[in-house]
# Entry
Amino acid sequence: MRQIIQDLSSGETRMVDTPRPSPKAGNLVIDSRQSLISVGTERMLVDFGKASLISKARQQPDKVKQVLDKVRTDGLLTTLDAVKSKLGQPIPLGYSNVGVVADTGSVSDFAVGDRVVSNGSHAETVRIPKNLCARIPDAVSDEAATFTIVGSIGLQGVRLVNPTIGETVVVTGTGLIGLMTVQILLANGCRVLAMDYDPNKLALAQQYGAEICNLADGTDPVEAAMTFSGQRGVDAVMITASTQSNDPIENAALMCRKRGRIVLVGVTGLNLSRDNFYEKELSFQVSCSYGPGRYDPSYEEGGNDYPLGFVRWTEKRNFETILDLMASGKIDVSQMISKRLSFEDAPAVFQSLGEQKNLLGVILSYDSPDEQRQQRTVKLGEGGRSPSPDGSPAIAVIGSGNYASRILIPALSKINANLGPVVTSSGLNGTIAGERNNVPESSTDINAILQNDDISGAVVATQHNSHAALTSQLLHAGKDVFVEKPLAITHQQLANVREAYATAWTTGAGPRLMVGYNRRFSPHITVMKKLLDRVQAPKTFVMTMNAGAIPPDVWIQDIDVGGGRIIGEACHYIDLMRFLAGDKIVEVKAQKMGQNDSETVTEDKAILLLRFADGSHGSIHYLANGATSFPKERVEVFANGSVLQMDNFKSLRGFGWPGFRKKGSWRQDKGQAACVAAFYEAMRKGQPSPIPPEDIFEVAQITLEAADILRAQS
# Structure
């Protein structure tokens, strides 16, 4: 199938071939019929991509601060790599799609063949969570239904205004969202004054029943609003324009009556005048996209609805409301369609959006044959995987999130590994990563690895809750496995992997198993290990991870998905201490910070204590309550009258250490590339895994025990 993506670094808009998304529980797989280019919104993305790096920075001052903090802690070169990688990750375009359900993902509310609207992208097939989809009434055409998502943005703003019959409302900006907002307000019994600089859009607003104010002819918007309201001031202002100017906000305050309401749906400058708001006791609110549920992972990804009695209008119920208004004739979008085009013409349209200022809605139609949409594996580049000239083993990759696409796949490509397919659930990320790193195929079918005798091994880089199951499948299939940490997030999962590994080795030499504990492979840790191996006496380790705070609803904090940050991240330091100590862990203790529920929601402020068989011991301080400007990681070792101190994988210093004083580097190096390279080299040469399996299982067990202790303290 094909999809439209936008490169944020170069500004290029292009169409890519990508595999059909695989079915997923709670998600609908939808074959597209039509989608809407929301010209104003999507023009902003295209223009951002074409802008210079300095211009991008000016548009995102909050991101600039993050970059400067990272430069101070991680160094300039590491930060530049991260920024380039972030900007170089293309994004899918589009958010208003109409199609036919091809797979229900076990969702009982829908059936195969249903016509549905969703916030899906411009693609021949999309996979969308059920709460972001709505069934289309028979009275609404596909073409009209494509405006549903745009209309829902306006509807949510109207709900925040909470208008009553007869109230006067100004709508500033008459693009697609503004024109939909005008119609919703009129249907609600309001008198509406539409303001814009475009006479054609204003004429359409007037046709719907609004009064108009053409700002292009020099009309004073405040005076026009006062006249419209009988000199009382309007009851509310909805700003649906997109501008950097503060004028819309300033004018809105001046034209409102006392205790008037202002709702920002679009984008505008926000330098507010306190006097204007204070004297009139004005209310100001920013509307969040389609409505309640937006950006809530539990609602959108988890499919958990809000109770109707407590949250009457969710984003899905807003979708359904817009469709009902269309079906009853209260919203008419026919005059808002500027062009109707074939999907094949989309890239050219996007490239010229900046030159076509008078466009409103552009409808894309999809008429590709079914067999083209059904492909689960697509060839990239020159096409297809061929045997390696030197007979090197083929290694595939499962998952293409940020770490896999930015670190693991490029590391394999750099050492000329014989790469098999990149297999992902959605298809697009695997295709993008594959194109960049000379991977021959992208797939959404795990059997492209499991049932392919030419594939010797695989990297597992998916969400944490799937690591153990995928690792077990691959081991049972006789494949070497490099699994990005953690190996498992429950004791049962760990037992399953142990069983799969033992079974695979019952007939002799079995497949290799390795976990991506990359810090072992950092050049600074390599030096530290060599120095410590000279010391026979017990050692004391003090390790600090200034992990930084992340919201409780981020997936890694979800015990059932990410396993929590101790299992998902602190495992790195449990392994690192095990590696440097060089002996078995015989005891683990842990203490979480906080004594009440509000402080113990997450386990990311904790101290772990480890004791080793040789008498060594150490503490791991995993902390989410530090400053981002402080270095993220520090390792200190006290041994035999000497001290080693490693800061953020950039510098290593020795105190009282005979023959060693310091090791520095220009670039932070956590050993990520060396780790995966060592594994592939073991595959190539037929050697054991670089990390012994007994270490892997021991660290996984200790990590789970530490998490158990912390959770028991809640």
